[in-house]
Amino acid sequence: MWLSDLIGLIYPEICCACNQRLTKQEEIICLHCAYSLPKTDFLSIYDNPIAKHLAGRVPFEYATSMYYFTKKGLIQNLMYQLKYNGRYDVGLKLGADFGQALKEIPFWKDIEVILPVPLHPKKLKIRGYNQSDAIAEGMAKAMEIEMVPDVLKRAKFNKSQTKKGKLERWSNVENIFDLKDAALVCGKHVLLIDDVLTTGSTLEACSEVLLKVEGLKLSIATLACAESF
Ligand SMILES: [Zn+2]
C-alpha cells in the first residue's frame, strides 16, 4: 500500500460542499455536488440581471455571475471553506471552472487581464490571503490571460474618517480604493472579479477608480450572486 493511500484511510479527503468522502478520482468537490451547483445561465446573455443591476451606475462592457448564493446551499459551504478554513484551492477550482465556462463564449474573448477586488488589510491579515485572488487566479489560468492583483489598493482612512460613525463611513464606500499601478491596465479590457455580488457598491467603487485609467475598458464578473439583489 502506498503511503498516500494509508493517509487517505486515516484522514479521508472530504467534499468541501457536502462533507461526504471523496473517491480517488474526485478532487475538492464531489461529482454529485459539481453537477448540482446552482448555475445562473447568465454567462452567454449580454443583457442579464447582473448587467441590469449595475447598469447606469458604472459604464461597463459585460457583467455576469456564475452561481446563485443561497443560504445553507452548496456555494455558501464552498465560500465558507475558501474564506474561513484556509482552502485557497477551493477558490482556484471554482475560478478555473468559471474561466473555462467564459472561454467558450465568444464575446468574453475580448478580455485581456483579470483584476481581483482588493481585500481590506485587516481581513487580509486575519485570513492570510484575499479570496478574490484565488478565484481570479483560477480564472486567469483557465482563460490563459494575465492576472494583475496590484492595480488597486484600499485607501487608508485618516483620523477624522475613523472617528466618523459606522454608517457614515459605510456610505463613504466610493472613496475606499486608490490606484496603485495604472500602467498595468492602461488601454486594456479588464475583468474585475469579486466573490459574491450583493449590493454591488464595492464593485461600483472599484470601477469608478479603474475607469480613470486612460483607454481602459471594464467588465465585471462575480463567482456568485444573491438570488435577489
Ligand atoms: Zn459533495
Record the SSE blueprint:
Layout: H1 3-10, H2 31-36, H3 49-54, E1 63-69, H4 74-84, H5 88-103, E2 113-116, H6 121-127, H7 131-143, E3 146-147, E4 152-154, H8 159-163, H9 166-171, E5 177-179, E6 189-197, H10 201-210, E7 217-226
Parallel strand pairs: 1-7, 2-3, 2-6, 6-7
Antiparallel strand pairs: 4-5
Bound molecules: zinc ion.
Structural overview:
- This protein is an alpha/beta fold and 229 residues long.
- It has two domains: 36 residues, no CATH class; 190 residues, Rossmann fold.
- The protein is 38% helix and 17% strand.
- The chain contains ten helices and seven strands.
- The strands form two sheets. A five-stranded parallel beta sheet has the order 1-7-6-2-3, sandwiched between helices. It has a two-stranded antiparallel sheet with strand order 4-5.
- α10 links the parallel β6 and β7.
- α4 crosses α5 and α5 runs parallel beside α7.
- The longest helix is centred in the middle third of the chain and has 16 residues.
- The N and C termini lie far apart (52 Å).
- Bound molecules: zinc ion (ZN).
- The site of zinc ion has 8 residues, from α2.
Give a quick precis of the structure:
This protein is an alpha/beta fold and 229 residues long. It is built from ten helices and seven strands. Bound molecules: zinc ion.
